[in-house]
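Q: Please design a sequence for this.
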């Protein structure tokens, strides 16, 4: 009886903690959604209005701005290409670091890890000067290259862990059957680690979609991304809270839909990787 009571209390405490965490996580999104559906007077009302007549005026104002739609399209293009480049370069690099022993491998792995610890603003000015010297400022190519450089260490380090979990016997069997190392990588290792590739690809795309600082510095008008376009709703005179929150919800929707569609692969990839050796 005592053990059953303890289990019940532990179960109840666990659910209470999960509920508190859920409210803490979801409430900002709920608040932003409610603000995007309010009139300006309701947004600034004190105390806040919990019951109001929803309006779509803020969303219409956002869609009427061609600059935001251009930024939305730029973010999609930049996110797709930056993710693809990060995977194309990072996955083979992670495989080489996990399988081959060479001089300086540990130092190289540590250097890849430390690049994630470095604040992006440290390298942003040199890259700004570099892109300006070659005429790539305010282009999608510059932002794609920057996002690839920033996201590449994440791909390499995460995929290295996946490859370490794959038994070496799989490659040995492929080599015995006549495959080269490259053939074994393409035909055996990649299909086996597909869940990890999907997971790290999702993380890379979300990073590129939400990234603000480098897109703000490297773009002007043509290549401006959606997060930078949202910043235009803030001026030195006032803040257009309605359109600002509406634009935030619009940017949030593709990420939520994308994660919902692939959440099984994301969870599977981040929990148990490919094959337990």
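A: Design:
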């Amino acid at each position: 009886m005592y053990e059953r009571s303890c289990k019940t209390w532990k179960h109840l405490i666990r659910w209470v903690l999960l509920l508190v965490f859920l409210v803490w996580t979801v409430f900002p999104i709920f608040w932003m959604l409610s603000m995007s559906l309010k009139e300006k007077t309701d947004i600034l009302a004190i105390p806040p209005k919990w019951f109001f007549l929803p309006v779509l005026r803020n969303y219409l104002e956002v869609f009427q701005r061609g600059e935001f739609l251009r930024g939305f399209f730029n973010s999609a293009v930049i996110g797709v290409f930056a993710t693809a480049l990060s995977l194309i370069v990072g996955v083979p690099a992670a495989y080489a670091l996990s399988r081959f022993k060479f001089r300086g491998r540990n130092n190289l792995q540590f250097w890849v890890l430390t690049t994630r610890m470095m604040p992006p603003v440290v390298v942003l000015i040199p890259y700004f000067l570099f892109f300006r010297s070659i005429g790539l400022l305010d282009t999608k190519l510059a932002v794609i290259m920057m996002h690839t450089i920033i996201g590449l260490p994440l791909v390499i380090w995460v995929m290295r862990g996946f490859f370490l979990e794959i038994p070496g016997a799989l490659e040995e069997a492929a080599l015995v059957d006549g495959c080269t190392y490259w053939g074994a990588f393409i035909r055996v290792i990649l299909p086996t680690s597909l869940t990890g590739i999907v997971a790290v690809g999702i993380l890379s795309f979300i990073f590129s979609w939400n990234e603000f600082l480098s897109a703000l510095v490297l773009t002007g008008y043509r290549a401006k991304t959606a997060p930078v376009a949202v910043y235009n709703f803030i001026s030195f005179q006032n803040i257009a809270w309605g359109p600002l929150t509406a634009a935030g919800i619009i940017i949030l929707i593709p990420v939520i839909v994308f994660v919902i569609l692939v959440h099984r692969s994301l969870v599977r990839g981040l929990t148990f990787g490919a094959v337990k050796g």
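Q: Thanks. Anything notable?
A: Residues 123 and 214 are 10 Å apart (CA to CA). The two ends are 42 Å apart (CA to CA).
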